[in-house]
Model the fold of this input.
Amino acid sequence: MNIGILGSGNVAQALGRGFAHLGHEVMLSSRIPEQGKLANWLKDIGKNGSYETFADTATFGEVIILAVRWSGVENAIQLAGIEHFKGKLVIDCTNPLRFAANQAPTLDLGHSDSAGESIQRWLPDARVVKAFNTIGSPHMVNPVFPDGPPTTFICGNDAVAKELVTRFLYDFGWGVVDSGDITASRYLEPLAMLWILYAIHTGSSDHAFKLLRK
Done:
């Protein structure tokens, strides 16, 4: 399957590497691609990886992953071309973080709206699924913790799209909880803030959530 990733940072590279190692064709992207930036990533991925513009990547992807900073998401979608998302599964990894100097990040949206809902409004003909937003990039693929596989939470309006994302997550070694429709992003994004604040407090990103059932 062709996986198009809007972004070229740590999240984009981690997920791109994971999908490529599963045999998918992966394309990362940025506004102005600079091949030198991803030289090591491209060398690691080999023939299954490439790096192009947002528009090229959105056209290429049967599945499109949003892995850019929240402040640039809407612009990235516009540069990619809204028509290129029509009918496709869009995996939203973003969190609506606001950054200020010498302060911990805060949420730019919450309670009555979310990044996930915003993206679904901007892409009304796409099938948006929120996923991968409550874990740091080092553990997005094949997470290994002493207590077994951690839990990731997803949400979205399209049941078939969520089934496909669930299969991807199982392939990556995750336990998965379907949290409902896209409005559940209002709660998954604050959950990411809890992950972030704990990382700041401890100085470590080696933690993940796990849902316990009886």
About this structure: The two ends are 37 Å apart (CA to CA). The helical segments are 10-21, 39-45, 54-60, 73-80, 115-122, 159-171, 185-202.
